[in-house]
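Project standup — Tuesday

K.O.: blocked on the structure for the chain from last sprint. Re-posting the sequence here as requested.
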Amino acid sequence: MEDKQKIKALWLVIVSLIVLNISVLGWLWFSHPKGHFPPGGRVPIAEIVDFSATQRQEFEKLKDVHLEEVEPIRDTIQVLKRSLFDYLKQGKIDTAYVAQQENLLAAKIRENEYKTLLHLAQVRAMCTQEQKERFDTKVLEQFKHQGGGGMGGGQMPPSRRD
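H.V.: unblocked you, prediction finished:
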């Protein structure tokens, strides 16, 4: 008799765990925000701020112009970085050459950061007051923690369309 009670208790625990797992999976599936999210967990600016259709059109134009400006700069940054690290393979280091290359790299990073800052200012300017609050608390926070391609140091993110 005791064995039958233990078996019933085990079945009850197993069924409860299965129901719990299905519930958690359902909750995760249905509570997850809809839409495409780029790699790295970044949510597109237009979704965060909740732009209207006309704002989205204006934003897309701004974004396209911005990407045309910064993608060549980002490519140059990658080339300069590769060049510097390949230079290490030569064995001896010319500090004057390294300083010159670092200055070129720093100038390109500065240019990229400045263009990104201007772009964010343009995007913020097209927001309503309520959207500006979301922009300030969520979008700017994203950029603060982002890599070197957008106001924050670290690695350059890949080109993106948001």
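K.O.: great, moving the ticket to review. Residues 35-39, 149-162 have pLDDT under 50 and may be disordered. The chain has five helices and no strands.
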